[in-house]
Write a structure and sequence with these properties.
2 domains; Glucose Oxidase, domain 1
Length: 221
Amino acid sequence: MNTTTETSVIERLAALPTASISDAMDALGLHGTLHGLSPLTYDFRATGPAFTVQYAPAGESRGSVGDFLDDVPPGAVIVIDNEGRTDVTVWGGIMTEVAAERGIAGTVINGVCRDISTSLQQNYPLFSRGKFMRTGKDRVQLVAVQTAVTINDVTISPADIICADADGALSVPSARAEEVADLAEKIEETETRIVASVKAGTTLVQARKDLGYHDLQWGKK
């Protein structure tokens, strides 16, 4: 996917709810939903290519948190895998301030964050398994950046497109992004037409049947 095409697909996905994107991926036999990761506030939304970060428990040497941030390009969504740990944080206020200033689209954490008031003040989108104040410094160490990470059973490669909103977060494989966007747009349009039809007096059952709602969601059309 060239840069122009990637930008176009990201813009299209950014205009869609994750619910329709998830339905489209179901229909295409793709699994990318990141179960258990939620936004700090329902207003948060982030869409962009993944910048992946892998942490592990710190060994004998001192560990640090956040040094990778200088390498993240504007518009990317940072995806941090801290193995789902909820006892130490890997994201805090300084990182939020820097990321917001540099135009990073948001951060998705398989773990927890802290200093959430800063995120809310900056309107910087954070998605995580929760919040906890205990620092990860010297407790975790950076293992790799921009390599594939696996959250739950979803493998996320650099440049896969992360979409996150009030319903949670998911990862769209970059090679299938246009296909997913095409179908998600059709699903969203169909749902809009169903609502309009019901408001005009049609039953919900009939409207769904007339517009092929179930077939569309399960890839039979």
